[in-house]
Amino acid sequence: MTNVNPQDSSPQYRLPQKRDIVTAIPGPKSIELQGRRAMAVAGGVGSTLPVYAADADGGVIVDIDGNSFIDFGSGIAVTTVGASNAAVGDAVAEQARHFIHTCFMITPYEAYVEVAERLNHLTPGDHQKRTVLFNSGAEAVENAIKVARLATGRDAVVAFDHAYHGRTNLTMGLTAKTMPYKYGFGPFAPELYRVPTSYPYRDGLSGPAAAALAISQMDKQIGADQIAAIIIEPVMGEGGFIVPAPGFLPAIAKWARSNEIVFIADEVQSGFARTGAWFASEHEDLIPDLVTMAKGIAGGMPLSALTGRADLLDAVHAGGLGGTFGGNPVACAAALATFKVMEELDLPGRARDIEVKAGGRLHAMAAVTEEIGEVRGRGAMLAIELVHRDSKEPNPELTKALVAACLAKGVVLISCGTYGNVIRLLPPLVINDELLHDGLDVLEDALNELTAVRGGL
Ligand code: PLZ
Q1: What is the CATH topology of the domain spanning 3-81+346-453?
Q2: What element of type H or E holds 373?
Q3: From ligand 1's centre to the CA of 295, what distance in Å?
Q4: Is residue 71 within 8 Å of residue 431, measured between CB atoms?
Q5: Quick check: pTM over 0.70?
Q6: I need a surface site. Which of 10, 85, 399, 428 has the fewest CB within 10 A?
Q7: 136 lines ligand 1 (CB under 6 A)
Q8: In this predicted model, what pLDDT tens digit does every residue of 256-270 receive, in sequence order?
Q9: Does any ligand 1 atom lie closer than 6 A to the CB of residue 269?
Q10: pLDDT tens digits along 138-181
């Protein structure tokens, strides 16, 4: 397990931190398991990669055939402190030996209260805050909307183009992309509206100009005094790691405030050190009314949170918020250990360091690769948007081929984007530099090979 070295506060690893491919990919055991899976697991569940995990630590995932892959995905931005962090594992085991569940709504316990205290402190702004815990990102988002509607007495909720907020009925309605998330699963909840976001590479607009467009639509098409909440990811995740142009988010937040609309920052993917700050909202000094969190919060244990203005969260009647498993004690123990590791290893600082190192490499690749339309992101939430040569036409074919080529060479990469043409880098923040560079070498070679072979097509 990844441990903290007491001498120099660097991560220590249990598994060898190396890329090592010993079979064809997928290997025979993964192929066999894939056959069993097809007969047992619902066909609607996808898996990006055809290899089955046996072990993971620091920056590597080892599959059941003994192949060691460099992990550039962190299970979609979750295993920020490593997939088997020793401190998190110990906290989980210790809590499990005492009690795994009592239900906070029946017999409460300290760890839940302590996580709430920590989140009230860690999230942006020093106003009075309250926290409620759930199991998934979608559940946190769903409850943020419930709170905003009750507190404002209004119905309308605004989300943005390219948004991703989850797969439950309400959050599907907020998510922008139909395939695979929404297709055929409607009808969706009423009073959900969508307005344009800021996507500098594609809209060419300044932050204030993009905000003016969104605000005008909200004002004219919905009516400011009808809107309960505006929800946005400060760095849009599944939609393509889109960083809005400077000034966009503050302008939207300011308009929300002046119209008593609840401004919700969905930090499910961007939170917890990932972007080089505890929360991505901090990069533009945003103080959201409500913040939704999940993914990296508990070292891989399922936990999510909604933190925000005390007056909003306390407006809800007692018993109005909850759930059987929400704030499970084992998950809370994992979260407290995770926060400690993030502080001890200064993982926000490490994310900024990765931005310089990996971001620099990606910019160098972009300088010689016409298919890279843009390099963007914050901290260790980095991406390249792939296009066809001499145009901004999305290139999902190259994206798919690149993911497959990197996997075959031992690098786990995931794609995203409304147009399926964005490669995202989300390494665990405890990955060492050697592995980071080795993974980027593989990406660079694969990119060179594929763009040369394709002759720019
Ligand atoms: N809000 C910003 O990124 C989850 C989903 C992948 P859950 N993103 C990855 C997939 O295909 O299901 C996400 C997010 C933002 C909310 C969510 C939802 O979080 O924990 O998956 O419910």
Answers
A1: Aspartate Aminotransferase, domain 1 (3.90.1150)
A2: strand 372-378
A3: 8
A4: yes
A5: yes
A6: 10
A7: yes
A8: 999 999 999 999 999
A9: yes
A10: 999 999 999 999 999 999 999 999 999 999 999 999 999 999 99
